[in-house]
Design a protein that fits this description.
The complex is a heterodimer of chains A (279) and B (175). Chain A has 8 helices and 10 strands. Chain A is α/β, with parallel strands linked by helices. Chain A folds into 2 domains: 99 residues, no CATH class; 126 residues, 60s Ribosomal Protein L30, Chain: A (2-Layer Sandwich). In chain A, strands 4-2-5-10 form a 4-stranded mixed sheet. A 4-stranded mixed sheet of chain A has the order 6-9-7-8. Chain A has a two-stranded parallel ribbon with strand order 1-3. In chain A, helix 1 packs parallel to helix 4. By secondary structure, chain B is of the alpha/beta class. A 5-stranded mixed beta barrel of chain B has the order 2-3-4-5-7. The radius of gyration of chain B is 15 Å and the shape is globular. The chains are: A alpha/beta (279), B alpha/beta (175). At the A-B interface, helix 3 of A face helix 5 of B.
C-alpha cells in the first residue's frame, strides 16, 4: 500500500484552485481565438475580442478570469492501493478550497439555498470520488459558475425518440438558454445511466479538452451534429447573434435501463477553467 | 469607440442606438438578486440614490492590495426581470448586465426613455481594472452581493436595448 497524507490533497486542491480560476484552459483559449477570426457579426466579434483581451489581463495581473469563481467541483480518482491518513478526505478538500479562495481574492459564492446566508469561505466543495485501480490519486478542479449552471437541463426521454430525440433535446436546451449562459458555450452531455449518473456524466464531459471527440464513433458523430446544429441557431457570443454559439460539445455515455433514455445537458460558459494533477 | 460620461442627459440617451459599442465613465451602483429584494422593499428610504443612476448587475471579487476592485464582470440580467420595471418607473437611469431581459423590462425602458447596456460576461478581470474607486454603500452583510458605489473609466459595453425599445437580442436586428 502506498501511504498518502490527506494534507497533500489539501495542498494540491489549493494549487489547482488558484491556477484554474486565473486562466482559461489552452483548448478553450484556442477555440475562442478561432471563433474570433471567423466571426462575421461585428457585435459578436467585439464580445470575443473582449474575452481574449480579458484572458491576457487575467494572466498578466494574476486576477480571476471571471468574478464568478464558482462552486468548487472536485473530482478525485483514488487508486485502491492507496492508504489515506490524516484528516478526513472531504475536510482536506474543503481546507484547500477555503485557503485558495481567501489567498486568491476569489469571490465567495456559496450560500444556504433558503436563507441565502453566505458560508463566507466558498465551502462546501462538490466532491465526486471514485475508487480506481493503481496507487495514484488524480485530482481535477472545475470552478463552476452559475450563469451557465442555471441553464443546465435534464431530460428523461422515452427510448422511442432515439438518437434524433437526444439531438433535439440538447439543441432545445441551448436554444432556451439563449444569451443567458454567456455563449459561446461549451456543452457537456451525459447520455444513459439513471437520473443522477446522466447529470454527473454531463459534468465530467466538461473536463475533456474542447474539441476532443468521444472514442465511440456513433457518439463522436452526435457531438459533430450537435455542434453544427447549435451553431446554426445563430445566438452568437453573448447572444449578440453570430456564427459561434458553442465552442464545443462533449458527450459521455453509459448503459441505461430498457425503459429509459436519460439525457443531461450541463452548460459551461466560454470561460472554461479546469486544472488537474496526479499525486 | 464612442465615449459617454454618466449620468446621461436625455439628449444623449436619445442618440444611443441598440448595437452601438460604448465606453462608459462615471458612477454606477452594483446590485444583484438579494440586494434587489431589499431595494424594492425599501424604495422610499434607500441608503443610496437611484434617480438617474445606473445599476450594474454584478458582484465583485475582493480587491487585492493596490487595486480598487477585484474582477467584476456582469451577472445574468434576466434574474432581475421582476425588479427592473418598478425601479425604472421610480426613476432609475438604466442598467448594465448581460443577456436578454423580458418584454416587461423592454417596455419599461421604452416608457421611461432609458437604456439597458450589455457588458461582456466572463471578462471580469478587464472590468475590474476599469474600476477606479469602490465603496460599499448598503447591505454590507450581503458580502459580494452588497451595493457598491463604483467609479469607472471606459467600461466597454454594447447598447442592448435603447430608449426606443430596440433590442440587439431581437432576431430582426441581426448585426
Amino acid at each position: 500500500m502506498r501511504k498518502i497524507d490527506t494534507q497533500s490533497i489539501a495542498d494540491t486542491v489549493y494549487r489547482l484552485a488558484l491556477r484554474a480560476c486565473r486562466s482559461l484552459t489552452p483548448s478553450c483559449l484556442a477555440a475562442l481565438e478561432r471563433a474570433e477570426k471567423t466571426e462575421t457579426s461585428p457585435a459578436a466579434r467585439f464580445a470575443l475580442q473582449t474575452c481574449l483581451k480579458n484572458a491576457e489581463v487575467a494572466a498578466e495581473e494574476c486576477m480571476p478570469v471571471c468574478q464568478d469563481t464558482g462552486m468548487a467541483v472536485v473530482f478525485l480518482s483514488v487508486g485502491q492501493n492507496v492508504a489515506l491518513s490524516g484528516k478526513p478526505l472531504a475536510e482536506a478538500v474543503n481546507d484547500g478550497v477555503r485557503r485558495a479562495y481567501l489567498d486568491g481574492y476569489f469571490r465567495k459564492s456559496v450560500c444556504d439555498p433558503l436563507t441565502r446566508r453566505n458560508t463566507a469561505d466558498n465551502t462546501p466543495a462538490v466532491i465526486h470520488t471514485e475508487i480506481v485501480a493503481g496507487d495514484k490519486i488524480e485530482i481535477s478542479f472545475l470552478p463552476k459558475g452559475f450563469g451557465s449552471e442555471n441553464m443546465s437541463r435534464l431530460f428523461m426521454l422515452t427510448p422511442a425518440v432515439g438518437v434524433d430525440g437526444v439531438l433535439d433535446a440538447v439543441v432545445s436546451a441551448v436554444r432556451d438558454a439563449g444569451s443567458k449562459p454567456c455563449p459561446p458555450v461549451y456543452v457537456g452531455v451525459g447520455i444513459g445511466g439513471t437520473f443522477d449518473t446522466a447529470a454527473l456524466l454531463a459534468k465530467k464531459a466538461l473536463l475533456r479538452d474542447v474539441g476532443t471527440r468521444n472514442e465511440r464513433e456513433d457518439v463522436a458523430a452526435i457531438e459533430e451534429t450537435l455542434l453544427e446544429r447549435i451553431n446554426a441557431l445563430g445566438i452568437g457570443a453573448q447572444g449578440f447573434h453570430g456564427d459561434t454559439t458553442a465552442i464545443g460539445v462533449s458527450c459521455e455515455i453509459t448503459p441505461t435501463h430498457i425503459a429509459g433514455l436519460p439525457v443531461a445537458v450541463n452548460m459551461q460558459c466560454h470561460c472554461v477553467r479546469a486544472a488537474k494533477e496526479v499525486l | 469607440m464612442r465615449r459617454l460620461t454618466l449620468p446621461l442627459t436625455p439628449e444623449t440617451v436619445a442618440s444611443v442606438h441598440a448595437g452601438e459599442a460604448i465606453l462608459l465613465s462615471g458612477v454606477i451602483y452594483t446590485a444583484r438578486d438579494c440586494a434587489h429584494k431589499r431595494i424594492v422593499a425599501e424604495l422610499d428610504r434607500l441608503p443610496f440614490p437611484i434617480k438617474d443612476q445606473i445599476i450594474y448587475y454584478a458582484g465583485p471579487c475582493p480587491a487585492p492590495e493596490g487595486k480598487a476592485s477585484g474582477s467584476c464582470g456582469p451577472t445574468t440580467s434576466a434574474r432581475m426581470n421582476s425588479f427592473a420595471p418598478a425601479l425604472l418607473d421610480a426613476g432609475l437611469g438604466g442598467m448594465i448586465g448581460k443577456g436578454e431581459m423580458s418584454e416587461e423590462v423592454r417596455l419599461a425602458l421604452k416608457r421611461n426613455k432609458k437604456i439597458y447596456f450589455a457588458a461582456i460576461g466572463g471578462a471580469g478581470a478587464l472590468y475590474g481594472n476599469a474600476i477606479e474607486r469602490s465603496e460599499c454603500v448598503a447591505y454590507p452583510d450581503l458580502l459580494s452581493e452588497a451595493v457598491y458605489r463604483l467609479t469607472v473609466k471606459d467600461l466597454p459595453v454594447i447598447a442592448a436595448i435603447d430608449a426606443e425599445g430596440n433590442s440587439i437580442y431581437d432576431q430582426k436586428n441581426r448585426s
